[in-house]
Amino acid sequence: MKALIVILLTIFSYLSGINPVLAVVAPNFPSCNNPSGTIKAQYDSGTHGIAGDMGTYTGKDTVYQLDNDNLIQCFCAVDGKGIQTNWWKDGSIDPEQKQILINDGWNYIPNGALWGLKEEGYYAKNANYNCGGTDGGTGGGEITSVAASTSNILGLASTGNNLYLIVSVIATTIFSLLGIFFYQKAKH
Amino acid sequence: MNKLAKIFLGLGFFFSLLTLFFIYQRNVPISLANTQIITSETIPVEIIIPGLNIDLPIIPATLQKGKWELTSKGVSYLISSDSADISGSNILYGHNWPNLLGKITKLQIGDKILLRYTNQINREYIVTSIKIINSADISVLSNESLDQLTLYTCSGFLDSKRLVIKATVVY
């Protein structure tokens, strides 16, 4: 009996010490060197954005729609350095799995609409590849990205111009006061 | 008067004239008679918001390489864009000046917006949503069909936000 209790306690303590592992299996994405899917957007040149990267990149950009949820963006710089971004639409990923993905190098994009995609959350992961391009890149077929379409628009039109008015009023005040000051000074 | 005083007073005078011009530009009534749209396309040429006494010409505009064409002579109507981000159409925008769209902050859900088209057809829209968003939020530009209308102008501190009005056609 004692042996049975010891065995059960041993098994219990072993099992309680095991942390559940959350499995998040990312879909398979083709390489930009051998892309598939249909071209969603294509830019032969221009400045493009890369998800999770604050920089801007100049070169060729192509986005392939793989299926309803996934895309690849193939950016190819003029020097042949390419960046492949895998876009994965956020389906039913819970917060813990989300953290696992982020730890694994995925960037969470809350609103895909800002990148020319659906107005839903996406995960994007970047990887370098060699596109061998010399003038905007030729490798990887027609390389691109989703970012291309969005990076063109930085926002809505600037429909105010109130700043000009404010600056003008301030400039009027400052220059007039300075003029009066120097005028008074010259008088004395 | 010494030279420095003359320079500063001259600059002060110049900027005061500039200020007066900006104030004039924002308040001088916009006349429909001064605007003539020549196009074979059926596009809106006049926007009327009866509740706010707004009656303005609509000027065709484009969005190229992220740059929005914008007029001070009426309301801009996006006719073409090189961006895949913009789906649908019927996107109207204009300055938030008193003589342009400055008064649309008073619009309420259910208010009427009338558009008169080049083919003399009028369409009436009813405001269905009003929201203030960040200037970078371009998701509002997606209209599902010509039955929807998006009208926006600047809002907030130093025009950092956008007031976006969505309306749906009644007839």
Task: Tell me about this structure.
The complex is a heterodimer of chains A (188) and B (171). With 188 residues, chain A is of the alpha+beta class. Chain A has a domain at 29-151. In chain A, 30% of the residues lie in helices and 28% in strands. Chain A has helices at residues 2-16, 95-103, 146-151, 162-187; strands at 38-43, 47-50, 53-65, 70-77, 81-89, 107-109, 122-130. Chain B has 171 residues and is mainly beta. Chain B has a single domain (31-169), classed as Sortase (Sortase, Chain: A, Beta Barrel). Chain B is built from 1 helix and 9 strands, in the order αβββββββββ. Chain B has an 8-stranded mixed barrel.
CATH superfamily (homologous) name of chain B: Sortase
CATH architecture level-2 label of chain B:
Beta Barrel
Element-by-element helix/strand order of chain A: HEEEEEHEEHH
What's the rounded overall pLDDT mean of chain B? 84
Q: What is the gyration radius of chain A calculated from CA atoms?
A: 28 Å
How many individual helices of chain A? 4
Task: From the structure above, extract its key features.
heterodimer, A: 188 residues, alpha+beta, B: 171 residues, mainly beta, Sortase, Chain: A, eight-stranded mixed beta barrel, elongated
Quick recap:
The complex is a heterodimer of chains A (188) and B (171). With 188 residues, chain A is α+β, with helices and mostly antiparallel strands. Helices cover 30% and strands 28% of the residues of chain A.
Topology of this protein?
The complex is a heterodimer of chains A (188) and B (171).
Chain A: H1 2-16, E1 38-43, E2 47-50, E3 53-65, E4 70-77, E5 81-89, H2 95-103, E6 107-109, E7 122-130, H3 146-151, H4 162-187
Chain B: H1 3-27, E1 44-49, E2 54-64, E3 67-68, E4 75-81, E5 91-93, E6 112-117, E7 122-134, E8 148-155, E9 161-169
